[in-house]
Specification:
With 247 residues, this protein is α/β, with parallel strands linked by helices. Helix content is 32%, strand content 24%. A six-stranded mixed beta sheet has the order 5-6-7-3-8-9, with helices on both faces. The protein has a three-stranded antiparallel beta sheet with strand order 2-1-4, with helices on one face. A hairpin with a 3-residue loop joins strand 8 and strand 9 (213-218).
Length: 247
């Protein structure tokens, strides 16, 4: 079943075209790796789908509706650089924010909310940090906090923008394990990712971008040398270093 339909969107910043005529049909129960060189428009694609920026052309529907009508069914984990880590809040406070979309104005947090938060903290291995200020945490711990908050929202679609940047391998393995479990439950996950060597292991679907759509679909048929060369062009030396070209 298609959860997200992207029909011909184009996006510009300061009159410079960033995305051109993108068409995508995103299906539930899959983990999509969104891959391309720096400046390819990966984060811009997320923001256009989420309604955070207005495209020049085209349209996006989520569950067949405008994003504003289904927002609580969608969760977004931005890049760590986009977060104010000096915000005076504890780990528990931040994770509990994932429950707010399910609450009415002035409705109190109940025992069910607390149990969901407790489970998310446990799943991400950070229950022992719940009273710590977020600014005191390591990069990997901070990323776990925001994944835990996303889990608490109990959304059906997850957007994660480079969740593995600045984290240790233990955290990376825990995150991808959680993502695979979510996909097995029928959730839809889109992940901006830059490590090409791990992409075939992490994602069963790939979206290759470089301002235009290069290819998308099953990883085995999409993440192939010809498409990677089209996406990265002059940056092929990076691919040689990863071992993905020349095998």
């Amino acid at each position: 079943m298609s959860t997200i339909s992207v029909k011909g969107i184009s996006v510009s910043y300061d009159r410079k075209r960033v995305l051109t005529n993108i068409f995508l049909e995103i299906e539930e129960g899959n983990i999509y790796g969104v891959i391309g060189p720096n400046g390819a428009g990966k984060s811009t694609l997320f923001k256009a789908i989420l309604g955070l920026i207005e495209p020049d052309a085209g349209e996006v529907t989520v569950f067949g509706k405008d994003i504003k009508d289904v927002r609580k069914r969608v969760v977004y984990v931005p890049q760590r650089d986009d977060v104010d880590w000096q915000f005076p809040a504890t780990v528990y406070d931040i994770v509990m924010m994932g429950r707010y979309p399910h609450k009415k104005i002035l409705e109190r947090i109940n025992e069910n909310d607390k149990e969901i938060v407790h489970q998310a903290l446990k799943d991400m291995g950070i229950d022992h940090l719940k009273e710590r200020q977020i600014g005191e945490l390591s990069g990997g711990q901070q990323q776990r906090v925001f994944i835990a908050r996303a889990l608490c929202q109990e959304a059906e679609i997850f957007f994660l923008d480079e969740p593995f940047v600045g984290v240790d391998m233990t955290t990376e393995e825990r995150i991808i394990d959680i993502l695979k479990k979510l996909a097995a439950q029928g959730k839809t996950l889109l992940v901006v990712h830059h490590d090409l060597s791990s992409a075939p292991e992490y994602f069963n679907k790939i979206i290759l971008l470089n301002q235009r759509l290069i290819a998308y679909g099953d990883t085995k048929t999409t993440f192939v040398e010809e498409n990677i060369k089209k996406a990265y062009g002059a940056q092929l030396t990076i691919l040689h270093k990863t071992g993905l070209i020349g095998k």
